[in-house]
Amino acid sequence: MLSTVRGSTVIIEVDTKGEKNEYVNPDSVTITILDSLDTIIVNEVDMLSEEDVGFFSYAHDTSTDAILGIYTARVTVTQGSFIYKPEPFVCFVLDTADVPRLPAFQGNAFQSNTFQT
Question: Can you list the domains of the chain with their CATH numbers?
Answer without folding.
Answer: 3-116 (2.60.40.1930)
